[in-house]
Amino acid sequence: MVTAIDVDMAGQEDQQHVQFAKAQSRVLCTYNASDFYRIHTELVGAGRSHAGMVLAPQQRYSVGEHLRRLLRLMAAHSTESMRDHVEFLSAWG
Predict the structure, then answer these.
(1) Secondary structure, 3-state, the chain
(2) Quick one: 82 exposed, middle or buried, by C-beta within 10 A (0-12, 13-18, 19+)?
(3) Does 3 fall in a domain?
(4) Is pLDDT at 10 greater than 90 in this prediction?
């Protein structure tokens, strides 16, 4: 796992995060669920792809609960199965 800060992407536009994640074959995890779900819908509708997205509600879970849900999701999905797919962290409780 890396953060936007780790890869000097903090403050970049949402589309740039999606492109970076795709180029790195990394599933993108964000609290900005509405904007990134819209981006997912637009990309898939246009026949374009992304590496996958995990959308989480901001400040809804403790850090421990957030990580437990991510680990459950990661155990169930491969990087390949996440391609062009969106998962909502709320479903992994």
Answers:
(1) CCCCCCCCCCCCCHHHHHHHHHHCCCCEEECCHHHHHHHHHHHHHCCCCCCCEEECCCCCCCHHHHHHHHHHHHHHCCHHHHCCCEEEHHHHC
(2) buried
(3) no
(4) yes
Domain span holding position 19: 14-92
Task: Dump pLDDT digits (tens) for 49-91.
Answer: 999 999 998 888 999 999 999 999 999 999 999 999 999 999 9
Is residue 5 in a domain? no
Q: Count of domains in the chain?
A: 1
